[in-house]
């Protein structure tokens, strides 16, 4: 029994995508009308074929924009390390390992002065009406958006002398080290909370994700504590699941073969403010 027309069309498109004829770099497929003419098929038949490709992750649709070939992305591997490793794996390791292997670009921080209501108030243990500094950055590697990050600091850090926190500029060595060198407030430890959720509208747009929500984002909320156990910053980082992997090791484990750029999660918070 011959396969239905929609399946034959879907299979032909799949082969064209895998062969590179239809480039898998986020380029659009021909329009429905063009595919109808090319395959002498009805609109519903073309839609069934596209739906089949969508469910297999080979194409995705964006409302009002069309259907696109799913990009083939070399995963970015983040190495999760323990606190005992952190002093040796701080941001100098991040800069060396990533920049030495890939073209990584950090956006200039977008700085805002906000009320602490919500997550900042809860994590920093301050009133919802208190003022916080928000520093937001985006990370792009080889032209592909990989993460978004926002760090919140109590306003009193700037009032005590860490004034660069309120400037829209990168801070060499990272903001955490800057606060330590300026105020003597040292990060003695942190707590990470990792979750998986659907992307919001801004994340969907920035990461060019399908708008059907089938690609989730990892969210890491890191709260840093000073030597007195007081929280002094909270960093929220989001990573799209289609291009990020996380690795955790323990004990005497040999290094993995280099197949993707690695960074230390102990420095993911310091990646902002570069």
What CATH architecture label of the largest domain applies?
3-Layer(aba) Sandwich
As for the CATH topology of the largest domain, it is: Chorismate lyase
Query: What is the CATH class name of the largest domain?
Result: Alpha Beta
Structural class: alpha+beta
Percentage of residues in strands: 25-35%
The average pLDDT score comes to 84
What is the strand tally?
Answer: 12
* Alpha-carbon distance between the two ends: 62 Å
Task: Give start-end ranges of low-pLDDT stretches.
Answer: 84-100, 259-269
Rg result: 23 Å
Classified in CATH, the superfamily of the largest domain is Chorismate lyase-like
Which outline best applies?
Answer: elongated
Please characterize this protein's 3D structure.
With 274 residues, this protein is an alpha+beta fold. The protein has 2 domains: 5-69, Arc Repressor Mutant, subunit A (Orthogonal Bundle); 76-267, Chorismate lyase-like (Chorismate lyase, 3-Layer(aba) Sandwich). The protein contains 8 helices and 12 strands. It has helices at residues 5-19, 32-39, 43-55, 91-99, 119-124, 155-159, 175-183, 201-206; strands spanning 59-62, 66-69, 76-80, 104-106, 110-115, 131-141, 144-154, 189-197, 217-225, 231-240, 244-248, 262-264. Strands 4, 5, 6, 7, 8, 9 and 10 form a 7-stranded antiparallel sheet that branches. A 3-stranded parallel sheet has the order 11-3-12. The protein has a two-stranded antiparallel ribbon with strand order 1-2. Helix 2 (32-39) crosses helix 3 (43-55). The longest helix has 15 residues, at 5-19. The protein is elongated, with a radius of gyration of 23 Å. Residues 84-100 and 259-269 have low confidence and may be disordered.
